[in-house]
Design brief:
The protein has helices at about 50-60, 75-90, 100-105, 110-115, 145-155, and strands at about 1-10, 20-25, 45-50, 65-70, 95, 120, 145. By secondary structure, the chain is of the alpha/beta class. The structure holds iron/sulfur cluster.
């Protein structure tokens, strides 16, 4: 089960190509200048089963982006959804989070959650680092991390 704020089908702003973006409810970080403060409420939106979300994703036949809120603050459902999209549909999956990669690798639950992702956009929005010229992220501290290459090599590798 995941608490979902909304789903945008066929969007091009949350990663390359036309994607199905799923916005999950809840973020405890409350960054000043956050692009979406309405997403902070963990009781926002509605409960959706993983099966329901898989049906929407399969119907759209498109890669997937998880955003929010912070998907890693619903780690159990997020992990299950990522695993099922990768294993059953084979689609590319991106995830945005306020956690840094260094925080994630130090936490077994979070690391397990992102283990099958393609790209993780890490770190909170930092207003002092804001840069509107960046693709797919709002501030310079945030990185587009190639998760599989990073895990294989043991060295943080950026997506190109
Ligand atoms: S981590 Fe993301 S969603 Fe959460 S407050 Fe910061 S910018 Fe907003």
């Amino acid at each position: 089960m995941l608490r979902v704020l909304h789903i945008v089908e066929g969007t091009s702003v949350d990663g390359p190509g036309l994607r199905t973006s799923i916005y999950l409810a809840g973020c405890s970080r409350h960054c000043p200048g956050c692009h979406n403060p309405a997403s902070w409420n963990f009781q926002g939106g509605e409960e959706r089963t993983i099966d329901e979300l898989m049906q929407v994703i399969a119907y759209n036949e498109a890669p997937v982006t998880l955003s929010g809120g912070d998907p890693l603050q619903q780690p159990r459902g997020t992990r299950e959804l990522i695993q099922r999209v990768k294993r059953e549909l084979g689609y590319n999956v991106w995830c945005f989070t306020g956690y840094t990669w260094e925080e994630i690798v130090g936490d077994p639950v979070l690391l397990d959650t992102v283990r099958e992702l393609d790209v993780l956009v890490d770190g909170p929005f930092v207003a002092a680092e804001r840069d509107i010229s960046l693709r797919f992220r709002g501030s310079r501290n945030q990185r587009l991390i190639d998760v599989q290459r990073t895990l294989d090599s043991g060295m943080l590798t950026l997506w190109k």
